[in-house]
Amino acid sequence: MAVELWNRVNVPFPSAVSAVRVPFTAKTAADVETLLTERENVLKLVRSEILQTEVRLLYELLYVLNNSYRGNKTFKALKQVEQCVNRLKNMKLDAALQELSDLCPNRIQRQLSIKDGQCFVPSQPTLEWICLKVLGAARLMSCTLRRCSRAFTLSKQQMKWEEFVILNVVITSMLSRLWVIFRGVLLALSGLYRQLLELLRDVARVQPMPFLTDFSLPADLAQFLGPSDALLLTKPAAPSRARQEKKQAAKKLPAEAKKTCTQKRKLKEDLGVAVIRGVGLAADRKSFFKLCRTFTESTPKQTSRVDRRHEFQKQVRGAASFSHMEIHVDKMIRWCKSQRMGKEKRLLTFLQLKCRQMKCLEAAGYNVQRKLQTFKKEACWASSPEGSAPKTLRSLASRRRVHGRIRFHTLRRFVMRGGVKRKEQAGQQTRARLSGDDQRSRTAQEATCRSTDTHDDIDDIFASAGL
């Protein structure tokens, strides 16, 4: 498959004369001056220190994340952005634009050429070659903007999932700055291409030397990039004069308002001195009380939640099978997720798993009507968990609490207290069973055992000392 000329990294330079002598008028001088200005705008953005800093930051991030982040989608999108940046460097657009500047006459040469009537300007093959370079760079910029947008979306999605938050903040900020810079480069290339075509028409009319025979240059970059990328070339509209006048009029205060403001500034209040207030205080107080009254009333969001719960409970009571029940529970789970109702969502998710199990039993032919009635009560309670929970959900909560939520020192205190009580009860029972004689004989035996033990210990100590 043949590659278009503009899509090549190294566009072959035409083997023809680079500059030709053409009649030079004031209009031609103005076109050349505008062309050099647009060229300077492009080079200023491409060679800017801000762009180079962001590109270095991109390289550093890819180098650090090469091993640990390789399988991530955001990392792959960043690699695509890096490929676009590297291709822009390999195109050597700045070198081509620098050559264009060398071939165009400077300000002093333009003034002398207007008097002389003739001047050297870039030839038609050179201008067409530079137009191909600009077309390739514009298509590459539009592709880079799409890659930056995709990487930004993936990084933002990871940030929403609370994964690698600090890293994704750095990536999103870097990508947003790169997007702005590359869009500025695309806008500058659009103006440069327009001026190249104007000078090309004048040169081709005087010295026709066609270089592109199988490819015709488009009339505009918007036509070349297509409707999807044409919106990127539209500059934001400047604020209209009427809107600016309206803002200035809003900033200007009327004379009465200025007078009251100055009176308020000059007013000095001391302790113990009565201050006379304006008449408008009562109106302000009324409006304030009215605003407070509206806040104390129930908000529409709360009323909508209550209505939705009542509607769900009504649907649950009218469900004839677990299949219908699963549909209603699934809708309610999604609604709870949208309303950020975490407790209700967890309870309904647990009931959804149970509903799927009972649905399989129902499809197998088992009679699950009694289970269905119990499940309806559980679903109604889960939608608004107030009061005592049903037995199944209560057992689930107790199991969760036993498995992981009892602290160690509380459990230890409970065990120690129970052990002490059991020990005391056992001692009381044994004392009640033993008679007085048995207790005396037992104490005597314990005393002899202790004395023998102590004597044995003393003998062992002296024997170890060699005495």
List its traits.
two-stranded antiparallel ribbon; 467 residues; elongated; mainly alpha
Short summary:
The chain is mostly helical. The chain is built from 19 helices and two strands.
- Taking all Cα atoms into account, the compactness measure Rg is 43 Å
- Tally of helical runs: 19
Mean pLDDT across residues = 75
Structure summary, number of beta strands: 2
SSE run: EHHHHHEHHHHHHHHHHHHHH
The geometry reads as elongated
Largest sheet, described in full?
2 strands, antiparallel
- Which residues sit in consecutive blocks of at least 5 with pLDDT less than 50? 264-273, 277-283, 396-408, 449-458
Overview of the structural elements:
This protein has 467 residues and is mainly alpha-helical. The protein is 75% helix and 2% strand. It has helices spanning 26-46, 49-64, 73-91, 93-103, 107-116, 124-160, 165-206, 221-225, 227-230, 241-251, 255-266, 280-296, 300-317, 322-338, 342-364, 369-383, 391-405, 408-433, 436-465, and strands spanning 19-23, 118-122. A two-stranded antiparallel sheet has the order 1-2. Helix 2 crosses helix 7 (165-206), helix 3 (73-91) runs antiparallel to helix 6 (124-160) and helix 14 (322-338) packs antiparallel against helix 15 (342-364). The chain is elongated. The model is unreliable at 264-273, 277-283, 396-408 and 449-458 (pLDDT under 50).
